[in-house]
Amino acid sequence: MYTSDIRQDVSQGDIFRDVPIAYINSAPDVSEIVTRVDYVRAILLTHDCDYDKPSSQYVIFAEVRPLAEIAPGSHGNVRNYRTRNTFYLPAVPDVMEESYVDLRRIDRVSKSVIRFKAASGDRIASLTDEMREALQGQIALFFGINR
């Protein structure tokens, strides 16, 4: 599932800790808008070729959530990739509990933030090539794209 070492270059399928994500909430009548920033574990969805382009200022991430937050009766569906909006991630010892990618929580993040996070040691795991392809397939399935 994961490479034995984190890839040298930032790549699709890299998992980072403490990625800043902005949230905008509003009252039902939209009279009051409240913003906040949460720092979450997230996985890079942007392809390597897009990440490497100097003109690309933003990249796409999805939140990585603990599997424990899902009802126990649904764990098997997530672990066996039977849900469209999730992608299962086994635990990384001493780094990350058993988790899933929540494809309903996709955000863009400045590439400069990610460069800083990578240099600061906040990149905690890299998916293998096989699992990156599986992630791509799950993204396509989520968005209704036939492969």
Main attributes of the structure:
alpha+beta
Query: How many distinct domains?
Result: 1
| Element-by-element helix/strand order | EEHEHEEHEH
SS class:
alpha+beta
Distance between the termini: 22 Å
The description of the largest β-sheet is: 6 strands, antiparallel
Radius of gyration: 16 Å
Concise structural overview:
By secondary structure, the protein is of the alpha+beta class. The protein has one domain (14-142).
Folded structure, characterized:
With 147 residues, this protein is α+β, with helices and mostly antiparallel strands. It has one domain (14-142). The protein contains 4 helices and 6 strands. The chain has helices spanning 48-52, 75-79, 111-119, 129-142; strands at residues 14-26, 33-44, 58-66, 86-89, 99-110, 123-126. It has a 6-stranded antiparallel β-sheet, covered by helices on one side. Strand 1 (14-26) and strand 2 form a beta hairpin. It starts with 13 loop residues before the first strand and ends in a 5-residue tail after the last helix. The model has no long low-confidence stretch (mean pLDDT 93).
